Amino acid sequence: MIEIAIPGAKVLRLSTAIIDFNGTLARDGQLHDGVADRLRMLARQLAIHVVTADTTRTARTALAGIPAQVHIVHDTDQSAAKRAFLERFSTHEVVAIGNGRNDEALVDAAGLSIVVIGDEGCAAKTLAGADVVCTNIRDALDLLLTPTRLVATLRS
User: Fold this and answer.
1) Which of 15, 46, 60, 134 sits in a 20 to 30 Å window from 114, CA-based?
2) For 2-154, which CATH superfamily applies?
3) What average pLDDT does the chain have?
């Protein structure tokens, strides 16, 4: 559990992370440098679920040995599938991290949403629904590992 008091806003009590794979954790099916170590550290505090269409079919291999559960969604209506996965949890306790159009509903409904504008860009509607925007996944994960950074960004 990560608890973050945001002055002038709410107290976030996060128990779960739902993270997209391609375009977010990985580029061309390979994890970005530094992501594996950050996920291992974050897994000490949050249950980590990678929910992905797995475009490159490498998610399970790339995440082997990392304490994260990988969930593959079907090619049709991925946005609804990701949102349905989120609804298995107390949505206010979930941080969602993504970049794609198929992450839009997930980002809109999570207690905290972070989008990553990386090498693949970010879908505009997904970006519009985010609480926080980062230019790389390392910074996004570091926000959770060093919560005072989130306080500085989200306080009123």
Assistant:
1) 60
2) HAD superfamily/HAD-like (3.40.50.1000)
3) 94
Output the six-digit token pair for 29. Answer: 């099916």
Q: From the centroid of its chain, how far is CA 138?
A: 11
Q: Which helix (H) or strand (E) holds 71?
A: strand 69-72
Ordered strands of the 47-52 beta sheet: 69-72, 47-52, 16-19, 94-98, 112-116, 132-134
Q: What is the pLDDT of residues 25-80, one digit of tens each?
A: 999 999 999 999 999 999 999 999 999 999 899 999 999 999 999 999 987 789 89
Q: Residue 86's closest CA among 130, 51, 60, 126?
A: 51
| DSSP state at residue 77 | S
One-character DSSP codes across 33-64? TTHHHHHHHHTTTSEEEEEE--TTS-HHHHTT
What are the structural domain ranges in the chain?
2-154
